[in-house]
Write a structure and sequence with these properties.
This protein has a domain of 29 residues. Helix content is 74%, strand content 0%. It contains two helices and no strands. The two termini are 19 Å apart.
Length: 62
């Protein structure tokens, strides 16, 4: 279930993205690489958008 009607992310996905964002900032401050964490955030966002697009397509069929 989406957090808002305009947002494709669920509350759990939003929480994961926020936590990963905090970890990314912390690693950047220490000069460490963040590509893997950023890729995880991108995957979470892509899955949420794909899920909501599929739901919208299913709603249009009816």
């Amino acid at each position: 279930m989406a957090a808002t009607s305009e947002d494709p992310h669920s509350l759990g996905e939003l929480a994961r993205v926020v936590v990963l964002g905090a970890r990314i900032v912390r690693r950047q401050e220490r000069g460490k690489p963040t590509a893997r964490l950023e890729a995880r955030v991108d995957r979470i966002r892509a899955q949420a958008e794909a899920r909501e697009a599929a739901r919208a397509k299913a709603r249009k069929k009816k």
